[in-house]
Amino acid sequence: MTYKIPAVFVCVLMACMLAILPGLAIAALQDGVYQDMGKGFHGDLVVTVTIRGNQVIDIKAISIGATADEFLPSVLKELVPLIIEGNTLEGIDASSGATFSTDGFFEAMRGVWIQAGGE
Predict the structure, then answer these.
(1) What share of the chain is helix, strand, coil (3-state, %, to 5)?
(2) CA atoms of 71 and 60, how far apart (whole Å)
(3) Which site in 1, 23, 42, 114 is 20 to 30 Å from 90, CA atoms measured?
(4) Which residues make Cβ contacts (< 8 Å) with residue 49, sequence separation at least 6?
């Protein structure tokens, strides 16, 4: 017994695959040290990221506001290992209780990611 697959089904399946595949591709990150800024709890945050061999190997951040961002250390402790381990910003949730600091950190990290050639 043979089965015939309707052409419409094949077209829909191919369209779905074409829509999904670009999102699966991981853009190569260019080696270098990149820096960008984001708005933290008490002012600006400066994030410095080192990339080598398409891998994030180091992330540092400092608060340059008039008052130190007391939430930044907990944000870094929680999020930096996840970013380095996964080599991505995707799927990483905000640090609990530190919304403004987390938002500023991710704002700067997205800028760094773009500078390094990521998507």
Answers:
(1) 40, 20, 35
(2) 14
(3) 42
(4) 33, 34, 35, 56, 58, 59, 60, 109, 112, 116
pLDDT digits (tens, 9 = 90+) for 52-69: 999 999 999 998 877 777
28: closest CA among 56, 7, 8, 57? 56
Kindly give the confidence (pLDDT) of every residue in the chain, 119 residues in length, as a single tens digit, with 9 standing for 90 and above.
565 666 655 445 455 444 443 443 346 899 999 999 999 888 899 999 999 999 999 999 998 877 777 888 999 999 999 999 999 999 888 878 899 999 999 999 999 999 999 87
11: exposed, middle or buried (C-beta count within 10 Å: 0-12, 13-18, 19+)?
Answer: exposed
Domain ranges of the chain: 32-115
pTM: 0.73
Can you tell me the distance from the alpha carbon of 49 to that of 87, in angstroms, rounded to the nearest whole number?
12
CA distance between the termini of the chain: 47
